[in-house]
Every structure is written in C-alpha cells, then in structure tokens.
Design goal:
Elements (H helix, E strand, L loop, with lengths): L1 E7 L7 H14 L4 E7 L11 H4 L3 E2 L5 E2 L2 H9 L8 E3 H14 L9 H17 L12 E6 L9 H13 L5 E8 L12 H12 L6 E6 L5 H11 L6 E5 L7 H7 L2 H9 L9 H15 L3 E8 L9 H13 L3 E8 L5 H6 L1 H12 L3 E4 L8 H13 L4 E4 L1 H13 L7 E2 L9 E5 L13 E9 L5 H5 L5 E8 L1 E3 L4 H6 L2 E6 L6 E6 L5 E4 L14 H10 L3 H6 L17 H18 L3
Parallel strand pairs: 1-6, 1-7, 2-5, 2-6, 7-8, 8-9, 10-11, 10-12, 12-13, 13-21, 14-15
Antiparallel strand pairs: 3-4, 15-18, 16-17, 16-19, 19-20, 20-21
Helix pairs in contact: 1-3, 1-9, 4-5, 5-6, 12-19, 15-16
Length: about 600
C-alpha cells in the first residue's frame, strides 16, 4: 500500500480536497486502484449535527455515514463508494481510545496522546486503506489522506505526530507528502509572495514531515522566478514545485497536474507501475472541461433554500445540476433565492429584497427546493412550489422539497388550510407530513433514516422511471426523519398528485409526480449524492431537460441525447459524440438499481 498525505498551510479552504481528488483521478486514469481518507480534527463524532453555515453541507454515504463534504469531492472525482470510516475525526479517535481503556485493553497503563492516540490514528488508516471502494473485492493500491485544517493548528498536532511516526512504520518509499500552500498576490504591488509558503513548510519540517511536493495555490500562474524561490527556500527540486492557479472549472485541475509531470514523479518516487501517459478517462475530463468553457446557452435555475449565504451548503446540489447541464451542452446559472424573502412578511419588512427574490424566481427556467431542517423560511418554499405548480414551471423537490410540495398541494388543491408538517407545528387532522419515531430515539446525531435504500416504482408511465432507464427498483441515499402521512396518500393521488415510487414495504412515499405538469417531480431521497461528472443523476437530468424544453423529445427518443441534434448549437466532434453516448445511455443504467 502506498500512502499520499495532503496537508495545507497558511489558510484553510485552500483547495486541499480538490487537490487530493485530482491526484486520485490522475492515478485512477493510469489504472491504479485508489481510496481516500479525510481527517477532520474537530471533536464531533461526525458531521451530522453541523449547521450548514458551520461547515457546509453534510454528505451522506451508502452506509449512512454523515461525513465531511470533501468525501463528496472524492466520490465524484474518482467515482468510488466510500464508507463512514473513511472520515476520521478527533472525536472518533478519542471515543475508540477511551472505549479500549474502559475495557482494560491498555493493561493499566497511563493512556496518553503519544503513543495511544497516535497509534490509534495509524491503525485506523492502515485498516481503512485496505477496504475495497470500486464495487469489487480488490484492495486499493494507493490511499490518499487529507489532513483538514492548517499546519500549526493545535487541534491537528496529534495527527501530524501520528504521520511523522507513520512514514517510518510503512517505510519512506511507500509514503509521500503533498503540502498545499497559498502564494498571495497583493493588488498594491502585484508581486507574488512566497514568504507564507516558506513559513508553512518550515513549520511542517519542524514537526517532522518533509514535503515531497509543494503545491502553490495562486490566482494566476506563478512565475519561474517564484517557482525557483520556493524550490530554494523549501528544500525541494524545481520540478517538485507545482502550480495550481484559479481555473475556469475544477475539471481542469487533474489536467493541470498531469501537465506538470506528476505521473512520472509518482512512478519514480513511489515505485508505481504507471504508464507515461494516462488512459482514455483523463481525455474525457478534458472534453468535459472544454465543454464547460465553451457552453454559452444559459439555463437559469432558482434554488430556493434556507442556507444560501454559503454556497458550500448546497455543493452536491450545485454539482448535480452542473453535471446535467454539461451533458445537455448548456451553461448553468444558479439564482440563489432566500426562501424567507419570498414570504409576505418580507414585503413589509424589506420590499426591495422581497421583489428581488420574486424577480429571480419568476425569471428562472426551473425551480429547485433542496433539503433542510427547521421552520424558518418554510412558507417561502411553499410559495415557490405553488408558483411552479400553477405556472407550469419545471420543479424539483429534494427531501424537504417534497414535503413542502405536498403541504402546498394539500392547502391549495385539497382545501386543507392548516396542512403542515409535525416538524413545524403540533399535529392535527390536517397534518400531512409526520415524524418517523423509530428513526428519532432522542439523540440528534445519526438518528435519521440514513444511507442507501431501495425505492420501488409502482407505475409504468412514470417520467422518473423512464429517466432511470425504466427499471423497477432504484437505490438512492436518504437523510430525513419526517415522511408523508400514508393515511392521506389516497386523497392526494385521487387529485393528480401521484406517488410513483415507494419504499420496499410500500409505506413510505419516495417519488412524487404531478399529472398534467411538464415536470413537477420531488423525491424524498438525495439523488445529488450519487451524481457524477460523467454520470448525471436522472432526476436532475430530467429537471434540466424540462427547463430547456427538451424533456419530451428526450423520452420519445429512448432517453438518448444526440450531440448533433438541437441540444447543441454548434458542430461537435466524433470524440464528443462518443462522450455524449457514454454520458446518457450508460450513465443512466449505472445510476439505476445495482
């Protein structure tokens, strides 16, 4: 097993996750089996109880693990299926050590950070690195480990010390350190400054880790003189200083790394059996990046949410929309609409924000209401769902987005004026969304309906079923503790709101469609978690197709896109045609039931 540790300096949020994902993509393009581990130095057991404003979205895995959003980057880039143990937190490590101490595993010794906590980290990494992630039983060859935070943070010291020991435990030829640092360029002088990187590398060396690659993050490509300066003062060869400047899209980062000869470097430094050139899969990334830069036709989506002040709160939703827009040769434009600003109270409180919010909603090609928790902004979401239903505008509801659509329909079509969710008000005869008590025993963390579950289609004419390549069963990831009241389903369906997908026992409503509407679809699960750049999520793809007015022709053509059809305004190459065929015909099958 080869281990690549990615550390960061100067500031957090510098892009370590994208660098780690891109390195994995590069190695996988060369036929190497890759897995990833994300280390978060906080004391939380997992990310499940975080506010989206605190740490971005909570990403959910097949096994129900609620983890850091960087694991979403790993899965999307490398197309792997990770597990809850691929996310290590200080809380998990200490919980493990204390549990062993209580059982007497340490035989009366004084339990300390060194060696007990550091040993626990090393043992965890060695164990998890061997777990298959490619859907087969093959053990990965390379494990990429991202250490969250920045070098010098007191929270991360135990992990740094663990890896100082670990490099000797696994032998230096099997361990490589990539240090990602910032090279700022102040506007006052326009000069690229290397001092922060020098200080960061000096601190890393003082803690016992020596970087093999120094990745310089910058707004513009670094100059040769700057590269030489970093090389001289950071004790690495010139070719070991890698520049990753701000790109037009993240899809260009693996290509940028390949251009700077990382494949030959990994081949020599780690002794990997790598070809001199990556395989066909990296060419597809180039085609994807080129299409992103070339697309000019906009598709405008109004994302009506509660946490729009931080884009990372909806990162998987944004990526899923992007994947689908790219396959249709359209440029995605997301208009973030604060659901509170759509409510009647905002008209009196701040009429400017109120009218701007409604202008963004009404000027969109489609409306998406994502997941969330709590009563704040719910009435605005209900109004957005009503506007999309009445005006025949494509609508996609995710988790909470399904529940608010059901509430809106009950109020304005079924006449249940008090219709609501038991999450927001006390239950009454018109409560249409109820709690699932077996998934909420009291604790907040890990008590929801989590992870991959089966959904069974009960209607053959379903649009969503066609998008899933007409399969009977699909498997998607869930994260919720409320559901549609099964006792009221018959009344909904009698008035045109069909629940075309249900759980295995038929009691939980999973997929909803509105009859007579171009695309009014909502799902209780989170399909964005399984969307990939080369395998768009079917509900999201259908939503984008409806937004550009091409859903009907897509379905009548057998759910295949032709790159020479009206989907693209320009001529396309045979390579692009091959990629489009891969995208749609194969991707929908792979996103359907296994």
């Amino acid at each position: 097993m080869k281990y690549i540790l990615v550390t960061g300096g100067v500031i957090s949020g510098i892009g370590k996750g994208i660098i780690a994902s891109s390195v994995g993509t590069l190695l996988k393009a060369c036929g190497i089996g890759v897995t990833s581990i994300k280390i978060d130095p906080y004391l939380n057991i997992d990310a499940g109880t975080f506010s989206p404003y605190e740490h971005g979205e909570v990403y959910v895995l097949d096994d129900g693990g609620e983890v850091d959003l960087d694991l979403g980057n790993y899965e999307r880039f490398m197309d792997v299926t990770l597990h809850r143990d691929n996310n290590i937190t200080t809380g998990k490590i200490y919980q493990s050590v204390i549990s062993k101490e209580r059982k007497g595993d340490y035989l009366g010794k004084t339990v300390q950070v060194v060696p007990h906590v550091t040993d626990a980290v090393q043992e965890w990494v060695e164990r998890v690195s061997k777990i298959p992630v490619d859907g087969d039983d093959k053990e990965p060859e390379v494990c990429i480990i991202e250490l969250g935070g920045t070098i010098g943070d007191i929270e991360g010291m135990a992990f740094v010390e663990a890896f100082r020991q670990f490099q000797f435990r696994v032998n230096r030829q099997n361990f490589l350190n990539i240090h990602v640092s910032l090279v700022p360029q102040p506007k006052a002088t326009g000069e690229q400054k290397t001092k922060p990187t020098q200080s960061s590398v000096r601190e890393l060396r003082g803690l016992g880790l020596s970087p093999d690659l120094v990745v310089c993050r910058s707004s513009l490509p670094i100059h040769d003189a700057v590269r030489e300066k970093v090389s001289n003062f950071c004790h690495v060869a010139n070719e070991q200083v890698i520049c990753v400047h701000d790109c037009t899209s993240v899809y260009r980062v693996p290509l940028l790394l390949a251009e700077q000869n990382l494949i030959p470097f990994f081949k020599g430094r780690l002794g990997l059996d790598l070809p001199l050139r990556p395989g066909r899969s990296l060419s597809k990334w180039k085609e994807l990046a080129d299409r992103y830069d070339r697309n000019t036709n906009p598709v405008k989506i109004a994302l009506v949410g509660k946490y729009i002040k931080l884009e990372d709160a909806y990162i998987s939703v944004n990526k899923a929309l992007m994947h689908s827009a790219l396959v249709c040769n359209y440029r995605l434009e997301v208009k973030y609409v604060d659901s509170e600003e759509l409510e009647d109270e905002m008209r009196e409180k701040n009429p400017v924000k109120y009218h701007e919010a409604w202008q963004n909603l009404c000027g969109s090609d489609g409306v998406l209401v994502p997941g969330g928790f709590g009563v704040r902004g719910i009435e605005g979401m209900v109004k957005a769902a009503q506007w999309a239903r009445v005006n025949k505008k494509p609508y996609l509801g995710i988790c909470l987005g399904l529940q608010v659509a059901v509430i809106e329909f009950a109020r304005n079509v079924l006449g249940m004026k008090k219709a609501n969710s038991s999450e927001f008000v006390s239950e009454n005869d018109e409560t249409v969304v109820i709690e699932m008590p077996e998934h909420n025993p009291g604790d907040m963390g890990g008590t929801m309906r989590l992870g991959k579950r089966k959904t069974f289609f009960n209607q053959h004419k379903s649009v969503t079923r066609k998008l899933y390549n007409d399969v009977e069963v699909v498997e998607e990831r869930h994260r919720h503790r409320y559901e549609v009241d099964p006792s009221k389903v018959e009344e909904f369906e009698g008035n045109g709101l069909k629940f075309v997908g249900r759980s295995e026992d038929g009691k939980r409503m999973e997929i909803m469609e509105l009859s007579g509407h171009p695309y009014f679809v909502a799902v209780q699960y989170h399909p964005e978690y399984l969307s990939r750049p080369l395998k768009p999520s079917p509900p999201y793809l259908g939503f984008i197709l409806a937004a550009i007015g091409r859903l009907t022709s897509f379905i009548t053509s057998g759910c295949r896109l032709s790159p020479r059809s009206s989907f693209s305004d320009g001529e396309t190459s045979d390579t692009e045609e091959e990629l489009m065929t891969f995208h749609v015909s194969n991707a929908l099958r792979q996103n359907a039931s296994h």
